[in-house]
Specification:
Blueprint (H helix, E strand, L loop, with lengths): L35 H7 L42 E5 L30 E4 L9 H9 L3 E3 L7 E2 L2 H9 L4 H14 L5 E2 L3 E2 L3 H20 L8 E3 L19 H4 L8 E4 L13 H7 L8 E6 L8 H4 L5 E5 L6 H4 L8 H16 L46 E3 L5 E2 L2 E3 L2 E4 L3 E2 L13 E3 L16 E5 L9 E21 L5 E21 L13 E3 L12 E6 L11 E25 L10 E11 L2 E9 L17 E10 L5 E6 L3 E7 L8 E10 L9 E2 L3 E2 L9 E3 L10 E5 L7 E6 L5 E8 L1 E4 L7 E9 L2 E11 L10 E6 L2 E2 L4 E4 L5 E7 L4 E3 L1 E4 L4 E5 L11 E11 L4 E8 L12 E5 L7 E4 L10 E4 L11 E9 L5 E7 L2 E2 L3 E4 L3 E4 L15 E6 L10 E11 L4 H8 L11 E5 L11 E2 L8 E9 L6 E5 L4 E3 L9 E3 L2 E6 L3 E7 L3 E7 L4 E3 L1 E7 L2 E6 L2 E4 ...
Helix pairs in contact: 1-4, 4-5
């Protein structure tokens, strides 16, 4: 069956578009936080309030947690002393839209996973009474309650919020309906940002009655995690009354044991007066029957609140974490680990593991609690495990629900199902997150070793990886060396039965180890049960194979029969003789019997949301037939389902498995389509059984029109580094874009290359003259200009590697396959272009700021000055900082803005900047607007910003980009306005001693930071003229600087021991650095802290030799042995041998700091035997002719042939009954290596690799 699906995956660079397709506001309704009363009153069970309601219904019943002191690391903590923790923070980033925890097409989304240290997640940016259903599903699996929040502003209660609170609580009828509404939707309570004042005490009394009704009703319905939260600012009488603890002013809001209403989130000054109320006497007098653990000591995650962690140890109250309004601070901290989505996702998991477990990511390697104003974790952070135990919900009857985990976090850059690639789209759906290890990560030299002396020095480690998955987009990676070490995975209370099957699935990437499953039972937790019967891997069998998932299943019978009826308390892995181990853990499960196959879903709504060059966005909403009474929640277990598969099918094409969901609704992003095919598509859903072993039939919608195609104007270029007379190509990323006229202009505005009426601008013979060239694109009468878009650089500064030829034993070969004997030594060689060189040296932005203190450079008071630099932004996520002058040392809000700030969009647009000056009594701000300024991403741009005063004390700021003064308009409050070079009247913006100038970074509290390179940083005395701008842009000689150069940093000299670069110029020794902010004491304040600079190839248009560009080869030969590898940019070789039969692919990558090139050698057929299996075939041939794959069979039979790309994704499939000697032909797509899997009667009989040249 032909599949010519459009999967846009070119390697073209400089595209101005993001890769991920994100949730857009118009795709899904976001409930109104002030509308809970109206929603509840209008709610009729069985009818949708709005079409997207199913996205906000949890389908997982909240699980209860259990206690077992013997599997606690701190055995002294009891139910009465083990602190609770409310995480009252947003999910992800709310600024610039609010996807929150809803299904998204963006991999870099927040997959919180440290549930075992959280008792309630108050989703700060979710509406009151609503939580995305998938997020609630993940929390409920882990025994964690969830809620939204009434985001009521501080001060006098506004009329709209007064109405909202009244509507949801004004009488018993509505209060009961709100309680039932929350129960049905899976919301476990209400949250209030209660720092308002009101004289309407009747309304407050009604709200208290509502809170009591909600808690009572949810608890009566069996909800073990029901809890309401009240920020302890508004007291019982409607007054703002912070920092008094529990008393007669708020005990009605709190409630007693018979009338539980809320838990109190105490303001950050709880360390003062409230301490006197943290005792049993106060509880017994003010709220008899309540627990001190219902009082939550608040911590501001932004830092700056009084450091009271050591004080917390002395009081039996719980922990409340807040911060900030638009994003949680741990999510923001992920940017400290790099700028790519992958580094940020790995960084985020590391951050939350450090924060909740501890800085060493092993809760038995304890760190003493200390006081610190910043709550950002590092290697020395004590972690929440210092105050509480890791809790578990893994206790239920395995006859009704098996225990299965694939260690899937709930997002990925691809989607796998049962080890096979289904698609390569980015995705996010936290609802499908699996049960994850209870501890992160409890490694010990002894089973249940609980003290620091049981930590193995330089032993094993574990982290999640997004490189592979058995199901989803991630799995658990275990790596390192250790003679004898245990990894404790799960705290459980599962009673085994005869016939139960325990499965461990792994993939051995490299190294060796003896690995056993170590289980213990309740009542004798330290004794391992029949370890010799649970051998997962032995050193003798440690054959690395990164393509093969290995399943080890143990049945509770025979030698393991004695485990029947044992209540398993601990699941661990025991590693011995581990050397250079790298193992992926893809499944752990305990299953019993075969579960019922669920009925097919019933599709209610299917919609196409958008059609674009990446594919089609769509959504489906469905129901499952059930016998539950209307108004009662229906969980997936009630309908024999664990989750649902989401399919899409373009008319006349094969169905595509797009993803999974636990909600009864699904989002589709970038469904691949054949642009030459039908313009109709349909959506499908299948229910997956609870044991993951069977599916319902696929329910399909009707075929729908794909709708109006949305064209994007983004462009791309195929090379990041271009040399004189080297060909290159510029094009629209969208293949359906209208043709355009293209021009490249030199610095004099002259056209050097052009093309008309085309979507692809091919410059076949290149451009001879070194320099930057503006690109002008005219389409349908509209002209866009991209400054310095094409940059021609000299051979001397290095080039992008390019592989010219590949050789086998000294000969080039055009064969798709080469036969090789076992243990035969091959010499693989290559030739390549001249790519090595030397260039100016820059420093990488690396999610930091680049700059220094202005006062140190002599910039004070009303002094005129200019700042310039060469800048290349390589990533521009969302809206990030371009240039700013800021004082982070002071209090909020000054530290959140600064003296001057500007943002840059993901397309490189700098649309505006603001100059305000420092201090709360600063002058009126002047706001500059730039209608046509684009700082081209991935290209070098010369930037000059002037800040100048004239003799009349007037001010202006000019912006030069690549030597061209940018047109602008400005406003000065409401009193004056002007154009580019006009002066602002009488505006005195004094520079303070704490002001730093900086490129890049994140503005104020904004966590979004960009990445790139800065070179030739300079401060100039006065406002630069056009002539001076040109002089600086052309490059300066550090040994003979112009008199007006105050401070010049060319980064050719290394930073000093404090990570500062010292300037040349009239202010010699002024410091600049790459810095990050470390939180200080005041809210939002920080200290600029120099970071070790990352040196990188700098601007190619200025002189410099400090950075060496060196090209190195890397061969990848799975299951082959490489030796004597050597090579340069132009030639190299390696020796290769194979010790086992098979079909093998070898790739070569040449890489330097400017980029890389990769090519594949022919497929090596080692000791090839074409026999399939006894009685199946004596021979089977596979070969390609042009784009056709031929499979020739020697034996007759019914065969199924699947063709997979190198990512493991099925790209073509054919079934046929053939006679002996017949062949089957399949059309292949793009050139490259494919894996062909041949099956007969349901069994894999041959797997072979082929190369489509």
């Amino acid at each position: 069956m032909k599949r010519n699906l459009f999967l846009f995956s070119g390697i073209l660079a400089l595209s101005l578009t993001a890769n991920a397709q994100e949730l857009k506001e118009e795709y899904m309704t976001w409930p109104n936080s002030q509308g809970l009363g109206e929603y509840a009153s209008q709610w009729t069970p069985g009818e949708y309030l709005f079409e997207d309601e199913n996205f906000y219904i949890s389908r997982v019943k909240p699980k209860a947690r259990f206690r077992n002191a013997n599997t606690q690391i701190n055995e002294t903590l009891t139910e009465e002393t083990d602190k609770n923790l409310v995480f009252w923070v947003p999910v992800g980033t709310a600024s610039g839209g609010n996807p929150n925890a809803r299904p998204n097409g963006k991999f870099d989304s927040e997959v919180f996973s440290m549930w075992s240290y959280v008792t309630h997640y108050g989703n700060w940016t979710a509406p009151q009474g609503w939580v995305p259903g998938g997020f609630a599903d993940a929390a409920h699996k882990n025994g964690v309650g969830v809620s939204g929040v009434a985001s009521i502003p501080w001060g006098s209660l506004s009329s709209d919020w007064a109405t909202a609170l009244d509507n949801m609580s004004k009488n018993a009828t509505i209060r009961e309906k709100v309680a039932k509404f929350l129960h049905y939707h899976g919301v476990d309570g209400l949250g209030y940002n209660s720092e308002f004042s009101t004289s309407n005490t009747t309304m407050l009394s009604n709200v208290r009655a509502l809170n009591e009704e909600v808690h009572k009703y949810l608890t009566e319905q069996g909800n073990p995690v029901a809890e309401n939260f009240w920020y302890d600012g508004t007291n019982d009488n409607g007054q703002i009354n912070f920092d008094r603890g529990l008393g007669s002013h708020n005990n009605e809001t709190f409630g007693d044991g018979e009338h539980i209403r809320t838990s109190l989130f105490l303001n950050y000054n709880w360390w003062g007066t409230p301490l006197s109320t943290f005792n049993e006497a106060t509880i017994n007098s003010q709220a008899p029957g309540r627990s001190l653990l219902d009082l939550y000591a608040g911590f501001n995650m932004q830092g700056g609140d009084p450091s009271t962690w050591t004080l917390l140890e002395d009081y039996n109250v719980s922990i409340g974490l807040w911060g900030a309004h638009d994003f949680n601070m741990l999510w923001a901290d992920r940017a400290n680990y790099g700028s790519t989505d992958m580094s940020k996702q790995l960084g985020y998991q590391n951050v939350i593991e450090q924060f909740f477990s501890n800085g060493r990511r092993n809760p038995i390697d304890k760190i003493a609690v200390f006081d610190r104003g910043s709550h950002h974790p590092n290697e020395g952070w004590f972690g929440m495990s210092a105050f509480m135990t890791a809790r578990s919900s893994l206790s239920w009857d395995l006859a009704t629900e098996p225990f299965i985990t694939y260690f899937n976090l709930g997002n990925g850059q691809f989607f796998n199902w049962m080890g096979e690639r289904q698609n390569d789209n980015e995705w996010y759906n936290i609802g499908v997150q699996d049960y994850l290890p209870t501890w992160r990560f409890w490694f010990a030299s002894e089973f249940l070793g609980k003290t620091a002396d049981k930590v193995v020095p330089n032993g094993l480690d574990a982290k999640f990886t997004f490189d592979d998955a058995y199901v989803g987009g991630s799995c658990l990676r275990i790596f390192g060396s250790a003679a004898d070490e245990y990894l404790h995975l799960f705290k459980t209370a599962f009673t085994l039965a005869s016939g139960d099957k325990i499965t461990v699935r792994y993939k051995l990437i490299r190294g060796q180890a003896d690995i056993n499953l170590a289980l213990s039972a309740v009542g004798d937790e330290t004794a391992i049960l029949r370890e010799s019967g649970f051998k997962v891997l032995t050193v003798a069998d440690s054959e690395a194979d990164d393509e093969m998932w290995v399943e080890k299943t143990f049945t509770i019978s025979g030698t393991l029969a004695s485990l029947a009826n044992r209540n398993i308390a601990m699941v661990a892995l025991h590693f011995e003789n581990a050397e250079n181990l790298e193992l992926y853990l893809g499944e752990f499960s305990i299953t019993r019997n075969e579960m019922t196959t669920p009925a097919a879903p019933v599709i209610k709504i299917a919609k196409v949301l958008a059609s674009h060059y990446k594919g089609v966005d769509a959504k489906v909403i469905f129901e499952m037939n059930n016998t539950k009474p209307l108004g009662e929640p229906v969980y997936n277990l009630d309908v024999n389902a664990s989750m649902f598969k989401l399919y899409a099918q373009q008319e006349n094409e094969e169905p595509i498995f797009m993803g999974i969901t636990t909600s009864w609704a699904g989002m589709y992003y970038s469904i691949p389509t054949n642009l030459q095919g039908s313009d109709r598509i349909r959506l499908g859903v299948a229910a997956v059984s609870v044991d993951m072993k069977s599916d319902s039939e696929i329910s399909w919608s009707e075929y729908m029109d794909m709708g109006e195609y949305t064209t994007t104007d983004d462009i791309q270029i195929d090379k990041t580094t271009i040399k004189p007379n080297e060909s290159f190509e510029i094009s629209y990323v969208d293949p359906r874009h209208d043709p355009a006229d293209w021009k490249l202009l030199n610095s004099d505005g002259e056209t050097v290359k052009q093309a008309s009426n085309t979507t692809v601008f091919s410059v076949e013979e290149g451009i001879s003259e070194i320099g930057g060239y503006d690109l002008q694109v005219t389409c349908n009468g509209q002209t866009s200009t991209f400054g310095y878009y094409v940059q021609i650089t000299s051979e001397a500064v290095g080039a992008l590697p390019e592989i010219y030829t590949l050789t086998v034993d000294g000969e080039e070969t055009s064969a798709a396959e080469v036969k090789v004997d076992l243990d035969q030594t091959l010499t693989l060689g290559y030739t390549g272009r001249k790519a090595d060189g030397a260039s100016s040296r820059g420093i990488e932005i690396n999610d930091s700021w680049i700059g220094g203190n202005l006062n140190e450079a002599g910039i004070v008071g009303g002094k005129s000055f200019s700042v310039s630099a060469w800048v290349r932004f390589t990533t521009l996520p969302e809206s990030s900082a371009f240039f700013s002058i800021e004082n982070r040392a002071g209090g909020w809000p000054v530290n959140n803005w600064g003296w001057m700030w500007s943002n840059i969009t993901s397309e490189g647009r700098v649309t505006a900047y603001t100059v305000r000056g420092d201090g709360n009594a600063s002058p009126v701000a002047v706001n500059y607007t730039f209608p046509n300024t684009i700082v081209s991403p991935n290209a070098w741009n010369h930037v000059v910003l002037t800040f100048e005063y004239n003799t009349q004390g007037q001010f202006r700021s000019l912006f030069y980009l690549n030597g061209v003064l940018q047109e602008s308009t400005w406003t000065y409050g409401s009193s004056a306005s002007g154009k580019t070079e006009d002066w602002v009247p009488k505006a005195s913006y004094d520079v303070s001693a704490s002001d730093w100038f900086c490129f890049a970074g994140g503005r104020g509290e904004q966590p979004v930071t960009n990445n790139g390179i800065v070179d030739d940083l300079l401060i100039w005395d006065g406002g630069m003229t056009q002539e001076e701008v040109n002089q600086v842009k052309a490059g300066l000689d550090a040994s003979d600087l112009p008199d007006k150069v105050i401070a010049y940093w060319d980064f050719e000299t290394d930073a000093n021991d404090q990570n500062y670069f010292l300037s040349k110029g009239s202010k010699e020794g002024a410091k600049a650095c790459s810095f990050k902010l470390v939180a200080s004491t005041a809210q939002g304040s920080g200290v600029q802290t120099p970071q070790r600079p990352l040196y990188i190839s700098g601007c190619p248009f200025i002189a410099g030799t400090a950075f060496q560009v060196e090209t190195l080869p890397t061969w990848t030969a799975k299951r082959g042995e490489l030796s004597e590898s050597t090579g340069t940019d132009t030639e190299g070789s390696t020796k290769l041998t194979y010790s086992k039969s098979g079909d093998y692919t070898v790739t070569l990558t040449l890489e330097n700091t400017l980029g890389s090139d990769t090519k594949s050698y022919p497929v090596f057929l080692v000791d090839q035997k074409d026999a399939v299996e006894d009685g199946v075939a004596d021979e089977m041939r596979t070969y390609t002719v042009e784009d056709l794959l031929f499979v020739e069979f020697a034996e007759a039979g019914a065969y199924q042939v699947g063709v997979y790309n190198v990512s493991g994704m099925l790209v073509a499939q054919e079934e046929a009954t053939v006679a002996a000697g017949q062949h089957m032909s399949i059309t292949l797509g793009a050139k490259g290596v494919y894996v062909v899997k041949v099956m007969k009667e349901g069994k894999v009989v041959r797997t072979v690799k082929v190369l489509n040249r």
